[in-house]
Task: structure prediction
Amino acid sequence: MTDIDRAILDTIVETAHDHFFIVDAGGGILDVSPGSAAVYGLSREELRASTVQQLVERGVLRPSVTLEVLRTGRPAQLMQQTETGRRVVAEAYPVFVDGELVRVVSRSMDLTDLQLLQDEYSLLQQRFSDHLKRGAGTSLDDALDLDTLEVRSAVMREIALLLKRVAPTDATVLMLGESGVGKTAFARQLHRWSQRGEGPFIDVNCAAIPEALFESEMFGYQPGAFSGAARQVQTKLLKVIQDGRLTRLGDVQSRRVDFRLVVATNQDLEARVASGDFRLDLYYRLNVIPVTLPPLRERREDIPALVERCLGHLNQRYARTKVLHPTAWTTLMDNEWAGNVRELENWLERAWLASPGDVIGAPGDREPEAPGVAVEPSREVGGACLAEGETLGQAMATHERRILAAQCASGESTYAIARRLGISQPSVVRKLRKHGLRCGG
Result:
């Protein structure tokens, strides 16, 4: 290595915001960045005089990402908990010379300060919400200015308040929730509230793009370039988010892009990270402002407004005025709506089209069954009886509480319960809160 190369490397290590380790093939630590001392609780000199094996034995590295690379010869990424109480994302890469692994370069990003900022933000948001609820000069409806977005339940209004507060910033928002809960509608409202509201809202359905074409569709391409397989799309997406620059496929020049990223998914990203399908550092770049939209069955107060809005659209589309018969509301309010708002809208359209007159669900009309719900003439279904005056929704809520109570009694964490029930961990937390239950972790 020349003196110039050595000086460049020293400058990179000395000035790095992330915490670098350079380790030889035997685990000996050759150099670390100065900031590593504060994270790992040892001076730079003490770290340089150690091996990663010794740091693991002392509990300084729990676990060591470098040892994983030395074991496999492949890049690795994991979460560490340090002795100083810091939570960091660590990633490491092998360095090969003539086919032989000679060095491992690792870097870690401290997430503790980010978590503290998010906690502080949540506290400020709660105070702001409480202030509005007390009616201090501004009504909640005036403060929200929701345009066409229909929310009546307290939880959805809290979410709307949160989105309005973050709208003027460029912070990445991660929308979580079951399919059909309205993630795209809330993302559009966030855009309308933002400083980019006069610009375009680009809605990209990533699942509909073939993997081989994803990079060219997302980042563009130079004329004549062949897209090929998108093997490192997560890495390139992470770089675009970090740097605000992208390089089109087949191009050699990067260009700055001005955008605000809003991500919506019904996937449990934490579980995908744990399974190795989703990059941990990308997850934390996306998870700046997480917003979990609860399913419709957990916010039934929103159903009437959603029904009225949808019915208005149907009447306008088909140029005819129809109204709901009062008995139709029993089905609308009691159904579980597994498909959420989207399923509710589909049911209403079928009911609108199936109704021969101007009253939907009038006596004598054949009411379309809600998907997944069997209509039984008896109050006894498969040996399970409903209590007198008990609705299906109430019975299912009781059964849900029993299941959750049994899972909590086993002492499992909310993450383990989520895996057992096949739902997301935020959904488990909401359900426990709804039923007044407490579990560990």
